[in-house]
């Protein structure tokens, strides 16, 4: 076994110190990156659960429901060119088979209603 000179021992010590410094810096960088990722995940969770996000989500749901309700409303049907025919009691007439000659009906359009009478043979 050969003994190192004092200068070689100092050089070897500097190399070991430099190696330890590099490994410590890499370990600290990895740890910091891991903590940044944890913070980002926690932030995303908080944003997802925030009252503002929940209110926005509920608002979008209500708007979608309102649009569905509007599309199914009688006024929307009338605006698309259809009419609603009602009998003397105001009930909608669903079938032609229930009509009789001379019966008075009310036909409702998008811009108002008009009285009609069932003609014989119709």
Key terms:
122 residues, alpha+beta, 3-stranded antiparallel beta sheet, rod-shaped
Question: Would you write up a description of this structure?
Answer:
The chain has 122 residues and is an alpha+beta fold. It has helices spanning 6-49, 51-72, 74-79, and strands at 84-86, 104-109, 112-117. The chain has a domain at 83-122. 59% of the residues lie in helices and 12% in strands. Strands 1-2-3 form a three-stranded antiparallel β-sheet. Strand 2 and strand 3 (112-117) form a beta hairpin. It is rod-shaped and about 125 Å long. It starts with 5 loop residues before the first helix and ends in a 5-residue tail after the last strand.
State the shape: rod-shaped
Q: Structural class from helices and strands? A: alpha+beta
Low-confidence stretches: none
Termini gap:
122 Å
Please state how the strands of the largest beta sheet are arranged side by side.
1-2-3
Q: Helical stretch count?
A: 3
Rg on CA atoms, Å: 41 Å
Strand content: 5-15%
What value does the average pLDDT take? 90
| Biggest beta-sheet profile | 3 strands, antiparallel
> Count of DSSP E strands?
3
Question: Topology of this protein?
Answer:
Blueprint (H helix, E strand, L loop, with lengths): L5 H44 L1 H22 L1 H6 L4 E3 L17 E6 L2 E6 L5
Describe, in short, the structure shown.
With 122 residues, the chain is of the alpha+beta class. The chain is built from three helices and three strands, in the order αααβββ. A hairpin with a 2-residue loop joins strand 2 (104-109) and strand 3.
């Amino acid at each position: 076994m050969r003994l190192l000179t004092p200068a070689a021992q100092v050089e070897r010590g500097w190399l070991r110190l430099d190696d330890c410094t590099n490994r410590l810096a890499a370990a600290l960088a990895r740890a910091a990156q891991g903590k940044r990722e944890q913070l980002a995940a926690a932030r995303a969770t908080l944003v997802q659960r925030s009252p503002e996000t929940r209110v926005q989500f509920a608002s979008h749901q209500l708007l979608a429901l309102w649009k569905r309700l509007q599309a199914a409303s009688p006024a929307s049907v009338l605006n698309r060119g259809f009419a609603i025919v009602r009998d003397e009691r105001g009930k909608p007439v669903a079938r032609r088979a229930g009509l009789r000659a001379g019966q008075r009906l009310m036909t409702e359009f998008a811009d108002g209603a008009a009285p009609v009478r069932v003609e014989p043979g119709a």
